[in-house]
């Protein structure tokens, strides 16, 4: 195989962009295991006290992830994230105001392989979320598993990530003064297995938990579609019914995380590797769907709002697809 190396005269700015995305990919794929190994390694060195003191800290800080986490705005504003934004590039597109007197549940679609758009737009300030939606604080949900990794849990909380269990997700929505938005990649880990370039499969047909949560708290629903999310990685073919897909789904049901066999480019060459392609991501935030507080919605009320949400998401996709290179005859496929 011929390897297409990056030119030696690549500008410093592009190299910084690549470095910023490299650290993000590493953080997403390998930082948690690294932190776990470091924690236990330190116990058998003269620095053992670090791990011991961390256990004490962890004991007193255990509930913080489920109580809104611990975002550090300074870290969200780092120049590092602007380089990551410009690598693809990523852009946040506003279609309507979100009144900060209300709380919101933002349904993010599609999940993609590594949810690059969700992280860049809602965990950093690089794409201007604080200017586009003033007074709104976003919380991106992440698998609770990652909050059990020492050191790593503190790192991800700095960016506004919180666990995706019900207790954690409901905490920001329970604040009556408003101004909180929970961002949910609705399709979750299973949808990542469908993240192939040129596909628009949305795992939503049976996903009603986030709808019910919005109704129980009177939080308005906001559909979000991220054009280009599925384009930044290639994935080994895994149609439903194949042995590979069966294995991936089985592992996902056991471990809670999916294992898409993805690939793209490398750091110093463009032929293979785990670095995403430089392809644009446009995350379009739709109009809010007003939701009245209903602590005990009936099945019919839940189904009606779920159907309305799917229609609004489909309309959002159809309204904007022409702006981002999607064929006019293409429609969302609800799975």
TrEMBL record:
Entry superkingdom: Eukaryota
EC number in record: 2.3.1.-
Membrane topology: Multi-pass membrane protein
Xref: SUPFAM superfamilies: Glycerol-3-phosphate (1)-acyltransferase
UniProt entry tagged with the keyword Lipid metabolism: yes
UniProt keyword list: Acyltransferase, Endoplasmic reticulum, Lipid biosynthesis, Lipid metabolism, Membrane, Transferase, Transmembrane, Transmembrane helix
GO BP term, example: diacylglycerol biosynthetic process
MF terms in GO: 2-acylglycerol O-acyltransferase activity; diacylglycerol O-acyltransferase activity
Keyword match Transmembrane: yes
InterPro entries: DAGAT
Top-level class of the enzyme under EC nomenclature: transferase
GO cellular component: endoplasmic reticulum membrane
Residues that span the membrane, as ranges: 21-41
Subcellular localization, as worded in the UniProt entry: Endoplasmic reticulum membrane
Location, primary (coarse class): endoplasmic reticulum
Similarity remark: Belongs to the diacylglycerol acyltransferase family.
Name this protein carries in UniProt: Acyltransferase
Organism: Labrus bergylta
Taxonomic lineage of the native organism: Eukaryota, Metazoa, Chordata, Craniata, Vertebrata
């Amino acid at each position: 195989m011929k390897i297409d190396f990056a030119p030696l005269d690549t500008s410093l700015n592009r190299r910084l962009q690549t470095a910023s995305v490299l650290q993000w990919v590493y953080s997403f794929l390998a930082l948690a295991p690294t932190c776990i190994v470091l924690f236990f390694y330190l116990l058998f060195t003269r620095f053992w006290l670090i791990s011991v003191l961390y256990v004490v800290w962890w004991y007193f800080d255990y509930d913080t992830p489920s109580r809104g986490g611990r975002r550090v705005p300074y870290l969200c504003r780092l120049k590092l994230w602007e380089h990551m934004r410009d690598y693809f590039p990523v852009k946040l597109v506003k279609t309507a105001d979100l009144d900060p007197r209300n709380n919101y549940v933002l349904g993010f679609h599609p999940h993609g392989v590594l949810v690059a758009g969700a992280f860049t737009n809602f965990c950093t300030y690089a794409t201007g979320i604080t200017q586009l939606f003033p007074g709104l604080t976003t919380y991106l949900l992440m698998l609770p598993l990652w909050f059990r990794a020492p050191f790593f849990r503190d790192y991800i909380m700095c960016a506004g990530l919180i666990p995706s269990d019900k207790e954690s997700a409901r905490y920001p929505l329970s604040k009556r003064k408003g101004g909180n938005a929970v961002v949910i990649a609705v399709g979750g880990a299973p949808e990542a297995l469908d993240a192939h370039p040129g596909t628009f499969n949305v795992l939503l047909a049976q996903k009603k938990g986030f709808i019910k949560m919005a109704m129980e708290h009177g939080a308005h629903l906001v559909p979000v579609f991220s054009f280009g999310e599925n384009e930044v990685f290639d994935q080994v073919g895994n149609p439903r019914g194949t042995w590979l897909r069966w294995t991936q789904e089985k592992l996902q049901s056991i471990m809670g995380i999916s294992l898409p066999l993805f690939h793209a480019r490398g750091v110093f060459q463009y032929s293979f590797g785990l670095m995403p392609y430089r392809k644009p991501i446009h995350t379009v935030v739709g109009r809010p769907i007003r939701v009245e507080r209903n602590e005990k919605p009936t099945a019919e009320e839940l189904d009606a709002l779920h159907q309305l949400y799917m229609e609004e998401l489909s309309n959002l996709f159809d309204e904007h697809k022409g702006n981002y290179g999607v064929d006019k005859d293409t429609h969302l496929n609800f799975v």
